[in-house]
Amino acid sequence: MNWSEVTALFGGAFDPPHLGHREAVEGLLKYPGVGAVRIIPTGSPALKTAQTPGEHRLAMTKLNFTKAIHDKSSRITIDDREIRAGGDRPSYTFDTLQELRKEGLPFAFVLGVDQVEALDQWHRFPDLLGLCHWIALEREPGGSDRMRKATQRLVGLGVLVPAGDERTFETRPGASGKPTRFICVPTPARAASSTDIRRRFALNYENSAPVTENLDPRVRAYLNANHLYGT
User: Fold this and answer.
1) How far apart are CA 32 and CA 14, in angstroms?
2) Which domains does the chain carry?
3) What is the dihedral of CA 209, 207, 139, 228, to 10 degrees?
4) Tens of pLDDT along 24-79?
5) Looking at the predicted structure, is the pLDDT value of residue 173 above 80?
6) How far apart are CA 149 and CA 166, in angstroms?
7) Burial class (CB in 10 A: 0-12, 13-18, 19+), 2
8) Given a cut of 60, is residue 176 above it in pLDDT?
9) Do residues 138 and 185 make contact, with C-beta atoms less than 8 angstroms apart?
10) CA 200, CA 194: separation in Å to the nearest integer?
11) Which residue has the higher pLDDT, 72 or 126?
12) Which pLDDT score, from 0 to 100, does residue 28 have?
């Protein structure tokens, strides 16, 4: 397939967004070489708790990706549909993909290895696999080994079928879907952690290296100005 015709959907709580997220997004334009990336801040994550209100996470997302959006022109955009939807109901990827399919464009949803490991817990699994293609990012150290085990587990569950090499699969979704492509690719993204950044702010360690080296200065200034994470 021609990945240059595909728009990658990069979702996340972004609580907070960090430079690893930016590097992962920019890396998708090189490998697998998607034509565009649409960043989607999660409204209310179903499998985790977003500690920070959506309007703050959206504002920080815009700050974190400003340079990437400017440098890549219209190839990187932010889609705030889940934040705008609001409410207490969990934001399900299945529902967002159903809505996006109305645009008639080829999409691929981007996953990290932790999400692949928990994919069978997602709402409407395995039916959602037939709604778009999938790009699973292998972040080192250890990402390739974990991804290999995670995808082989999905093969064992009967929802992935090897298609050429150990990193390429076709999905075998439920009766409501059609086979789609599921590929594993390396990412240049650093091993930054939003959870660790929140913890360090709460402990007044916001000047520690893991924070200053992994946060865009504008995001860090926003966190301090709005007294998020206990600052």
Assistant:
1) 23
2) 3-191 (3.40.50.620)
3) 170
4) 999 999 999 999 999 999 998 766 655 799 999 999 999 999 989 988 878 999 99
5) no
6) 11
7) exposed
8) no
9) yes
10) 10
11) 126
12) 97
* 44 CB-near residues (< 8 Å, 6+ apart): 50, 54, 82, 87, 88, 89, 90, 91
* Residues composing the chain: 231
Q: Where does the chain have alpha helices with state H? A: 19-28, 54-71, 81-85, 93-100, 113-117, 143-156, 194-202, 209-212, 217-225
Q: Which residue has the tokens 């390429």?
A: 168
Q: 136 - beta bridge partners?
A: 111, 184
Given a contact cutoff of 8 angstroms between Cβ atoms, the answer to whether 160 and 169 are in contact is yes
Q: pTM, whole model, 2 decimals?
A: 0.94
Residue 46's pLDDT is what? Answer: 67
Bridge partner residues of 188 (DSSP):
none
